[in-house]
């Protein structure tokens, strides 16, 4: 995965909640969640719009940070553009 795509994804994740990218462990978790999101989209092509935003919100919300549904609506296309094409 190109460094530029990694940086773009991390910047979007940080914009949603800075706590989700503090430390290598949390950044790695973010990439794992993004990969799971891509696989879920592949598995269910109908996972779009509000349903996808809810999925992303739930997937990325943790003890370290929270991604609202509104933030997830902006994060989902970044995942699709920067992470999914490399799987």
Can you walk through the features of this model?
By secondary structure, this protein is mainly α. 69% of the residues lie in helices and 0% in strands. It is built from 4 helices and no strands. It has helices spanning 3-16, 24-43, 49-60, 69-82. Helix 1 (3-16) runs antiparallel to helix 4 (69-82) and helix 2 packs antiparallel against helix 3 (49-60). The N and C termini lie close together (9 Å). The mean pLDDT is 96.
Short description:
This protein is mostly helical and 87 residues long.
Unreliable stretches: none
Q: How helical, in percent, are the residues?
A: 55-70%
Mean pLDDT score: 96
Q: What amount of the residues lies in strands?
A: under 5%
- Overall structural class, as computed from helix and strand content, comes to mainly alpha
Biggest sheet architecture: none
Order of helices and strands: HHHH
Q: In angstroms, what is the radius of gyration?
A: 12 Å
Count the E strands.
Answer: 0
Number of helices: 4
**Shape estimate:** globular
User: How far is the N terminus from the C terminus?
Assistant: 9 Å
């Amino acid at each position: 995965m190109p460094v530029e795509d990694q940086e773009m994804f991390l910047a979007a994740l940080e914009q949603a909640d800075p706590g989700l990218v503090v430390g290598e462990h949390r950044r790695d978790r973010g990439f794992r969640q993004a990969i799971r999101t891509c696989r879920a989209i592949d598995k269910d092509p109908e996972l779009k719009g509000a349903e996808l935003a809810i999925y992303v919100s739930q997937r990325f919300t943790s003890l370290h940070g929270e991604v609202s549904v509104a933030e997830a609506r902006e994060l989902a296309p970044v995942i699709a553009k920067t992470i999914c094409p490399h799987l």
